[in-house]
Amino acid sequence: MSASPPDRESALASDSKLELKMWLRLLTCTTLIEREVRRRLRQRFDTTIARFDLLSQLDRAPRGLTMGELSSRLMVTNGNVTGLTDALVEEGLVSRSTEPADRRSLRIKLTAAGKRFFDSMTPVHEQWVDALMSGLTRAEMAHLLELLGKLKQSLAAAGATR
Amino acid sequence: MSASPPDRESALASDSKLELKMWLRLLTCTTLIEREVRRRLRQRFDTTIARFDLLSQLDRAPRGLTMGELSSRLMVTNGNVTGLTDALVEEGLVSRSTEPADRRSLRIKLTAAGKRFFDSMTPVHEQWVDALMSGLTRAEMAHLLELLGKLKQSLAAAGATR
DNA sequence: GTAATTTACTTTAGGCCTAAACTATTTCCC
DNA sequence: GGGAAATAGTTTAGGCCTAAAGTAAATTAC
């Protein structure tokens, strides 16, 4: 057992509130995964997590999504989606077409190149995530998933989903 | 049971990999908590999560911390800490003094005003976090904390802490 | 039918964060 | 001692993200 580098939890009094500890540990895990996935996406595919996530949502929606649908699924603001979409259109991975029925709306879809690019990333990406979590048994993972589900419900109940 | 808004997990095939699901749910929980805490810190204290976290680390280290110690505890780059510290010095909440023993190093400490400000925020902040997680029992929370600990270890073992 | 409101999206200003290149100081090693 | 390497921190360019204000189209209310 080697000493772990200091992180957010360092020096937090051991009798301190469970909730706070949980929040810090949750944030640490998320940060570590994000950092590693970001590094690899950049090195291997010269792209970013935000763009990968956007492509991923489009891949699950063959008929495309509007800007608003994208922003709610990605849990980011409309303005953010505008910028990401601009970049992906520029890269030729995504198309933006106006909706005849409602001229305020835009329909965003994967282009053929976008689909090919995403398909090339997704199995590799999945392997990365699998490897990062390989220290947990299937049972532990299922349990963790369930507890996170409860946390998610708790957050919704506490009004964090406005 | 009301319909929840679509989020990252939407339309993810139900037989898809546990690891990926876990990662998405973890990210969702983190995002929801961050969003809520950010909103409240801004509204009530006119500050940000990053600044609160930096003050929090200094509060736990009465003798101060160097820039490098701050960046490893906050798990962000040196450059990022430089900018945050600049802002907090500007606000009078933090002091930056050179270390006589090693003139490359800086020692960052809470000022009296910084300590007062942090002390005024921390109980409120703790209440917010408690409320957000109030849907979980103590036992569930302890269990979740433990499983996240295992995940953290798994991430370290997989080399995510470089 | 038209004025007011709502909805979908964009723009702007600004904070967070990174990676890479840079400066200054210290340590290592001969 | 002196040059090479390591360490502590800063700077720069650029991507992510938000909140708030703005534009244009659709809907509601009268």
Radius of gyration of chain A using CA atoms only = 19 Å
Main beta-sheet strand count, sense and barrel state of chain A: 3 strands, antiparallel
Q: Which bin fits the share of residues in helices of chain A?
A: 55-70%
* Sequence of strands across the biggest β-sheet of chain A: 1-3-2
Element-by-element helix/strand order of chain A: HHEHHEEHH
Proportion in β-strands of chain A:
5-15%
Total number of helices of chain A: 6
N-to-C terminal Cα separation of chain A, in Å? 43 Å
Flag low-confidence runs of chain A: none
The dominant shape of chain A is globular
Structural class of chain A: mainly alpha
Average pLDDT over all residues of chain A: 92
- Please count the beta strands of chain A (DSSP E, at least 2 residues each): 3
Largest interface: A-B, 67 and 66 residues
Q: What is the quaternary state of this protein?
A: homodimer
Please provide a written account of the structure.
The structure is a homodimer of 162-residue chains. Chain A is mostly helical. Chain A has six helices and three strands, in the order ααβααββαα. Chain A has helices at 18-45, 49-59, 67-74, 78-90, 112-132, 138-157; strands at 65-66, 94-98, 106-110. Chain A has a three-stranded antiparallel sheet with strand order 1-3-2. In chain A, β2 and β3 form a beta hairpin. In chain A, α1 crosses α5 (112-132), α2 (49-59) packs across α5 (112-132) and α3 packs across α4 (78-90). Chain A is globular and about 55 Å long. Chain A starts with 17 loop residues before the first helix and ends in a 5-residue tail after the last helix. The mean pLDDT of chain A is 92. Chains A and B meet through α1, α3, α5 and α6 of A and α1, α3, α5 and α6 of B. The structure holds a DNA duplex (30 and 30 nucleotides).
